[in-house]
Amino acid sequence: MSGDFVPITPELQQYITSRSTASDPLLAELAEETARLGGISVMQIASLQGTFMSLLARAIGARSAVEIGTFTGYSAICVARALPDDGRLLCCDVSAEWTGIARRYFERAGVGHKIDLRIGPALDTLRALPEWPMFDLGFIDADKKNQGNYYEEILRRLRPGGLILIDNVLREGRVLDSALRDPDLDAVRALNDRLPGDPRVEVAMLPIADGLSLVRKRSAAGG
C-alpha cells in the first residue's frame, strides 16, 4: 500500500458510502427508476458524489449554481437542496425525455421553485447569459467534447472563490492508456492537462466515482 492512497475495493467503497450521510429515500427511489432505463443509467452520479456536492455547496454558502447535464435529476436535487430557499440552480440539458423524470422528482423533493431547467444546447444557454459573476458553483457532466468550452463559459461567470466540479475526468481509467483515442477521451485529457497550469484557478482531482475535478476560481489578486 502506498502512503499516498488506499486501494479502493468494492467492499471499501461500500464502507465509505455507508459511513457518509445517510441514504435519502427519495434519491434512492430516483436511482432505482433511473436504473430501470438500462445502460443509459450510467450517466447518473454516485450517491457519495451527490452527498459530497451538497456538502460543498453548503460549505461555500452557495446561492446560485449552474449544472450542465441534468439527466434524471439526481445531482440537481443534491445541489438545489443545499441552496437557500431563494437560491437558484440553472439546469441545462438537451433531453426533454430524461428531464421529464427530473421534473417529477424536483417537485417531490420540494426544490422545483429553485430550479430553472432549460432544454437546448448548453453552450447557447450559457453564452446568452450576462458576462459577470453570477454563479457560486458549477457542475459539468455532459458531452465531453465540449467540456473545455463549458469550463470557460462558467468560469467567466463564476465569482472569485467559487467552485466548478467536473465529472468523469478518469473515464474509467482510460485516460492513462495513450493507445486509446476518441474525441471525448481526447477532450477530457486536454482539460485535465490544462487545469493545473491555469493561473486563474487551483484544482484537485479526486478519485470519487469516475473522477471528479474540484476547481476553485482565484481572486483577482491571485489568492
Q: Would you mind describing this structure in some detail?
A:
By secondary structure, the protein is α/β, with parallel strands linked by helices. It has helices at 10-18, 25-35, 47-59, 74-82, 96-109, 122-127, 147-155, 183-194; strands at 64-68, 88-93, 115-119, 135-140, 158-167, 201-206, 212-217. A 7-stranded mixed sheet has the order 3-2-1-4-5-7-6, with helices on both faces. It is globular, with a radius of gyration of 17 Å.
Structural class: alpha/beta
Q: How large is the count of helical segments?
A: 8
The CATH architecture assignment turns out to be 3-Layer(aba) Sandwich
What is the molecular shape?
A: globular
Order of helices and strands: HHHEHEHEHEHEHEE
Integer tally of domains: 1
Q: Could you please say which CATH topology applies here?
A: Rossmann fold
Which percent range fits the helix content?
25-40%
Mean pLDDT: 93
CATH superfamily: Vaccinia Virus protein VP39
Main β-sheet: number of strands, strand sense, barrel status?
7 strands, mixed
Q: Give the strand line-up of the largest sheet.
A: 3-2-1-4-5-7-6
What's the count of strands? 7
| Range of strand content | 15-25%
CA(first)-CA(last) distance: 35 Å
Radius of gyration, taken over Cα atoms and rounded to an integer in Å: 17 Å
Assign the CATH class. Alpha Beta
Q: Extract low-pLDDT stretches.
A: none
Please describe the topology of this protein.
Blueprint: H1 10-18, H2 25-35, H3 47-59, E1 64-68, H4 74-82, E2 88-93, H5 96-109, E3 115-119, H6 122-127, E4 135-140, H7 147-155, E5 158-167, H8 183-194, E6 201-206, E7 212-217
Parallel strand pairs: 1-2, 1-4, 2-3, 4-5
Antiparallel strand pairs: 5-7, 6-7
